[in-house]
Structures are given as structure tokens and as C-alpha cells.
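Re-run with default settings, no changes from the original entry. Doing this only to confirm the output is reproducible before filing.
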Amino acid sequence: MAGLIDLANPTRFMRLSAVVLPGLTGAAVLLLAVGFYLAWFVAPADYQQGETIRIMFVHVPAAWLALMFYTVMTIAALGTLVWRHPLADVAQKAAAPIGACFALICLLTGAFWGKPMWGTYWVWDARLTSVLVLLLIYLGIIALWRTLDEPSRAGRLVAILTLVGFVNVPIIKFSVDWWNTLHQPASVLRLDGPSIHPSMLWPLLILAVGFTCLALALHLVAMRAEIMRRRVRTLTILEAERLDRLATQAGPVQGLPA
């Protein structure tokens, strides 16, 4: 908790994130390079799905990150409404486009994977439909941020919308258990252990960590950009108010109507 309080200072956050970013970016590049090499050149083709199984190495991490970033946004929403953390709405606003991108990647790779397996790019399957709803919620949140200019008011409204939309996250997670769907059940996060062979599991896990490092680095960059944007906005408002006061004190220019 003390660490979160320390990071409430935007200046301290900017200084710390500048130190963390190079290492996080380097780890992402290294892990993604190793992961893609193992996935494309070491992992075998599936005996049923053939080479199309390699779509899994992008599809699954994208699905995980789409859910993870919405969870991050939900925690940030609580930080805005309950704890009044100064950087909570900054974290939430920065996370929305990243989560939306991963949700879109998940849907697109799922469509490319579904065509050879199911014979169609899209079915109104419970898992697919709930992920599509997640993408629409992301887009609605981004649109709401862009509609309102005042950050604090926008942050509160977006936080409420985010908390309401979180009900879709457990629906996505347990949809394959609650309904009879075409989508396969969990293969990695299982109580009895992963059902994927280690030759495919390790590249998948390495890529998942690599994509996570990349997403976190992008999140930090987006937060830094949002902090700078708000600082510029504040300085612009203060300068406009200063010029307005000077104009008021100077009074009307001689020879011109008041």
C-alpha cells in the first residue's frame, strides 16, 4: 500500500517508469524472439489441426491480455471511486486502447483459426459472442473518454461504466463450462494441470510472458503521455487565466470601445 501511495505523485511515477521501461522493453523483445522461434521452428504441428495450431501462440496470449487489462481497468476504477488515487483514472484511460487491441487480435486470430476447424470464420458461440461484447465495451469506454474534456468528471463516469462491464469477464471465463459451445475448454489453467504437451506449452508460456511485458511497457508509455498531456492542459488553462487577469487589470485600450 505504501508503494501505491508513493506512486500517487505523478513526478515520482514519471521518474520510476523511466527507469523500468528500458528493462521491460528489452525483456519483451527477448521473450518474444525466443517464443516465436520455439513456436515456429521447434514446436511440432498438431496431429489433428496441423500447422494451424500455431495461431494459438498469438490467439491465447491476446485473449488472456484482453481480460487482464479489463481487470486492471476495474481495479483502477475502484481506485478512482473509492480510494481517490490521483493516477487511477490515468491508468484506466491508458489501458483501454491496449485492451481493445488485444481483444480485436483475439477475435481476428480466432476467426482465422476457426475457418479450417469449424468451416466458418464466425459462429454466435457463447465464448466468441462474450469476447465481442468485451471489445464493444472497450470501444464504448474509449468513446466516453473522448467525449468529455474534463478529466476528473470523465474518470468518474468511465469508472462506473467499467465496473458495470466487469460482469462480462467471468462470463467469458466460464462460458465454455456454463453453455454447450464449439469453443474448447481451458487447456492451460486447469486444476489437474495443463493438457498441452510441453513442446507446445513452453513456447506458449514464453510468448504469454513476452506479450505481457510488451503490453505493460505500452501501458507505462501511454500513462506517461497522458500525464504530460494533462500537464500541458493545466499550464494552458493557467496561462489563459493569467492573460485574462492582465487584460482585465489593464482595462480598455485608449481609443477603443470598452
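Residues 55-182+211-234 form one domain. The CA atoms of residues 34 and 206 lie 8 Å apart.
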